[in-house]
Design brief:
The complex is a heterodimer of chains A (about 325) and B (about 260). Chain A has about 325 residues and is mainly alpha-helical. Chain A is built from 14 helices and no strands. The N and C termini of chain B lie far apart (about 45 Å). The chains are: A mainly alpha (about 325), B alpha/beta (about 260). The structure holds adenosine-5'-triphosphate and magnesium ion.
Chain lengths: ~325, ~260
Amino acid sequence: MVIAATTLLLACVVFDIITGPADLGFWRTLTVVFNPSVATIQEQVIVWDLRLPVALMAIAVGAMLGVAGAEMQTILNNPLADPFTLGLSSAASFGAALAIALQWSIVPGMGDIIVTANAFVLAMATSLLLFGFTRLRGVTPEAMILVGIAMLFTFNALLAFLQYGASELELAQIIFWQLGSLARASWMKVGVCVTVLVLVMGYLISRSWALTALRMGEEKAASLGVNVSRLRLAVLLAVSLLSAIAVSFVGTVAFVGLVGPHIARLIVGEDQRGFLPISALAGALIMSGTSIASKAITPGVIYPIGMITSLIGIPFFISLILSQRKRHWQ
Amino acid sequence: MNSLLARDINVSYGQRQVLRDVRFDALEPGKLAVLIGPNASGKSTLFKTISGLLKPSSGLIRLGDIDLGKLPVKQRLSHVCFMPQSFSANASLTVFDVVMMAHKQVKGWRVNSDDMQSVGQACYDAGIGDLSEAYISELSGGQAQLVSVTQALIRRADVYLFDEPTSALDLRHQLEVLERIKQAIKKRSVVGIVALHDLNLAARFADTILVMQQGYIVLQGTPDTVIPAANLADTYGVSIEVSTGPRRELSVHAYPV
Ligand SMILES: Nc1ncnc2c1ncn2[C@@H]1O[C@H](COP(=O)(O)OP(=O)(O)OP(=O)(O)O)[C@@H](O)[C@H]1O
Ligand SMILES: [Mg+2]
C-alpha cells in the first residue's frame, strides 16, 4: 500500500517537473535533473530553480497538511478538524494581508519576508490561543472546534476590513496570497518544510500507540495509562507548527488537511501506524496532483492551487465515499 | 494476594464535592464486591479515584501493604484495571486491535504469536470471535460493551473495577458476563468490584455489597444483610419488597412511592 502510494507520488513529481509553460519535453527535463551540466543556463533555471522546488514543495506541504489534519482529527475526536476549520489558515491570511496592505510587520526587521513572517506568527498565535483553551478546566474537544470556527470568522471579518481599505493593487495581492500558490517555493522553504515534517513525524510516530488508544475514547485511553491532556497539548503544539509553516509558505489551501486523513481512514483505518503515513502520502499526492493540474488546465497559465484543490479534490472524494458505500452492500 | 481498603476519601470536581469520607473495609481477593447506588451517587468517581485517574483531596487507598496514592499513575494502572462506564467509540479500529492494545498496554506495538493467541482466545471466550475484524464503530451497543469487558479481563492486575459492565446487554449476556467476571476474580484470586444498577443481579452475584448514596458509602455487607435492609428503600426513594425464592435466591421488587 505504502509502496504503491510512494510510486504514484514519484510519478507525480516527475510529471510535475515536466509540465510547465516552457515545453522542454520529457527526456530533456529528466536529463537536466540528473545531469545539470549538459543543460543550457535557461533550462537549468527552469528545472532547478523553478520546477523542482515547486514540485517538492507541493509534496512537503501536502504531507504537512495531511499529517496536521490527521492528528487534529485524532486529538479533538472530530473528523472536521483541520488547519482550515480551526482558523489557522484565516489567521495566516490576515497576517499576510496586514503586511501587504499596511506594510505592518508583527515581528520587526523581517525585511523581504514580512508577509510570510506575519502569516506564520498569526497562525501560531491562533493555535497557542486554542492551546490555552485546552488548559482551561472543563473545555471539551467540541468546545475547541467551536473556538476554532469562531477564530475563522473573526479573522475573515478582519481580513474583509483590510480588503475594504486596500488599494486595487494591494487587493489583488491579498487575494492572490489567499488563493494559495506554490510559486513562492524556494529550496530554503523546501528545506524548512522537510526538516519540520521529519521532526514532527518522528515525534508523532513515537506517540502512535497513545494516539491510537485515544481513539478508543478518552476514559479508556486514560485507564490504559495514557496521559490524555498532556498528549493533546504536545500533539496540538506539534501540528500547529506544521500547519503554521505550511500555510505561511503557500497560503490558504483548504481541503487537503481534511481529505488526506479521510482517505487514509477509508483505506487503512485509524491504527496510527498506517493512518499517519497514509495521511501524509494522501496529502502529498493531492497537492502534487493539484500542482500538475494548476499548470495543465490552460497551457501557459498557472492557476492558484487553493482553487484547484477543492475543484479536483471534491469529485474524487465523493466518488471514494460512494465506492465505499457500495462495498458495504456486497 | 492482597485485599483493598479505603479510608476517608474526599474527591471534588472543582468546587463540588462528590465523594465524602468514603471508606470501605478490606475487600478480600477472590470475592466479588458489587457497588450499588442511585445515579450520580459517585460510583464512577470512586472507581476513577481508586484507579488513580482522579486525585482525592484526602484519604487513603491501600492494596495489601501498598499505599496506592503514593504510586505514579502508570505503575498504579498495572495494579488496577478499570473498565470505564462509556464503552462505545466511533473509531475505525478493529475489535482485535483494541483488545490487543488493552492486552499490550503501554508496552507498545511489538506483538508475538503468544499475544496473538491469547487475544484470539479472549475474543472467542467472550463470544466476539467472529467480530474480531469488524471496526468498533460498526458494533451494536451490546457488542461494544462485550468488547469493553474483554479488554478489561485480558489485562493482568490485582484489582478489577467494572463500571456497569452489563448496562447494554440482553438477559443471557448479563448472566454470562457477570459469571465470567466472577470466575476470573476467583481464579486469579484478585479483588473485583462491579458497579451495577440491577439489584437482583447484585444479590445473585455479590459476595459483598457496597451501597453508595450521595457520595457516602452507607452500607457494606453480604447480600443477605444489605438487600433486605430498610435503608435501600430510602436510598433509592422507592418502596422495596424482597422475597426469597425456592433456591434461596433473593429477588427484589420495587414500587414507586
Ligand atoms: N467530569 C465531571 N465534572 C464535574 N462533575 C462531575 C464529573 N463527573 C461526574 N460529576 C458529578 O459527580 C457526581 C457523581 O458522578 P458519578 O459519575 O460518579 O455518578 P455515578 O454514581 O457513577 O452515576 P451513574 O449511576 O449515573 O453512572 C454527579 O453529580 C456528577 O454530576
Ligand atoms: Mg457511573
